[in-house]
Amino acid sequence: MTEWINQIIIGLGLAGPILLMSVALSTVLATSRVLNVTVGAVFSVSGVLAVVAADAGGTLLFLVVALVVPVVLYVLLDAVVLRPQRRRSHGEDEIGAFAATLGVAIIITALLAEATHSDIKALPATFLRIDHVWNVNGVQVTEQAAILFGVAVVLACGWGLALKRTGIGKLCRAVAVNEELARTLGVRTGRVILFSWVVSGLLTGVATVLIVLAGRSVSVESGAVYLLVPFAAVVAGGMGSMLGAALASIFFGLAQAIVANLTPWPGTQEAVVFGLLFLLLLLRPEGLVPTRQAIRPY
Question: All domains of the chain, ordered by start, with CATH?
C-alpha cells in the first residue's frame, strides 16, 4: 500500500507541469480557437536559454528568461502570424491557424537544433536543487512533487478565479462564447486574445521553470515530450475546457507514474496515455467535461 501511495505522489508531481501546459493550451483555444502546437518548441527554447542564463547570471536571470521568453514568442506568434490570418479568414479558418502554429513550431525547433547542435544543456550541479525527501511512516513525500503539483494547482485555480471574478476574465469568457457578438458590443477582441496569449506564455514559462529544475537538463528534443501529453489532456478534457484539461492532466500524470513502476520499457508511458485517450474518446467523445458548444468558455 505504501508503495502505491509513493507512486501517486510521484504521479502528482508529473501532473503539475502537464496541468500548467494544458491550461495554457486551453486558454488560447477558448479565446482564439487555435490549438497551439508551438508549446513544445517554445518550452525547448525558453528552457535552453534559461539554463544558459542560470550558468551566466544566477537565479534571477534564470527566472526572468524562463518566464519572459514564452510570453515574447507567443505575442509575436499572435501579432505576426495569427492576427493577419484571423483578419483574412474572419476567424473561421481554424485548420489554417493550426497549420500556422505547426509551421512555426517546426521552424523554431530547426533553428534551435542548429544553434545548439542538438546538445543537452544542464543546470549547474548546485543550482536551486529541489531533491529533499520527507519520510512519513514509510511514505516518501518529495520536495519536487510538492512544489511541482502545488505551484501548478495554485496558478490554475488562481487563473480560474480570475476568469470568473475580474473584468478582463469576464471579457475573455465573452470572447470565448461569441467573438463576433463581443466585438459588436464594443469589446476589443484583439486585445483580449492577445492577453490570453500573454497568460498562456506565463503559464508555459512557469512550467518551464518547474520542468528544468526537476529534470536538471533540457534539449531541443525535450519539447516533443512536453507537447504530446498536454495535447492529450486538452482533447480528453473537452476541447477548450480548462477544468477538463486540468482533470485529465492529473489523471495522465498518475497513469504515467503507475506505468513507470510496473514496466521498465521505454516509451510505454506515452503509449498508455494515448491508449487511455482513445478509450476515453470512445466512451465519452465529448471529453471529461462535456459541452454543447464547439469551444467551451472555460
Answer: 2-119+143-283 (1.10.3470)
